[in-house]
Amino acid sequence: MLTQQTDWAVAPITGDPRWQRLEAPRPDLVQVATDAIRVSGADPREVNRVTCVALVANLVKGMGTHYLRVGGMPEAADGFEEVASRPDYDVDHLWNYFSHHGAVGVAAQKQVVEHLTNGDAAGIVADLIRNGECGFGFGGTDRI
Asked: 29, 53 in Cβ contact below 8 A?
């Protein structure tokens, strides 16, 4: 386990295999966003999928921070936020970060995965889509 002095803004983030084997399978954030678009009832051609995936990633950041904090690891929660703010950010960094924090990290990861796979996250993003949060704005064509 790494110490709280680690500068997560620049430190390499590789998972700890001793703890990774206990994690829940990592969900595909694109699939969560796609499910949200379907649940929202919006015309998929009018929804910016990139924005929706970014919203799902922000949910991962918020939930991960929350569960690490309530797990009694405020320094780890702060580090999680630093990881999500890195210029070389990748969602795998967030998933790998959990295993650096042992049992509490894995427990937090499992809680986040539960919300992503049971429909909670898709429901939240669907509400945001219905409220116009994932639209193209100027009627653009930046669809993926």
From this structure: yes
pLDDT averaged per 10 residues in sequence order, the chain, 144 residues: 63 82 92 93 91 92 96 94 87 89 93 93 91 67 45
Return the domain boundaries, the chain. Answer: 25-130
The answer to whether the CB of 122 falls within 8 A of the CB of 36 is yes
Provide the whole-model pTM.
0.83
Q: How far apart are CA 78 and CA 82, in angstroms?
A: 6
Question: Which run of H or E residues covers position 24?
Answer: none
Distance CA 120, CA 15 (A): 26
* Cα radius of gyration rounded to whole Å, the chain: 16
Q: Classify the C-alpha dihedral 4-77-14-104 as positive or negative.
A: positive
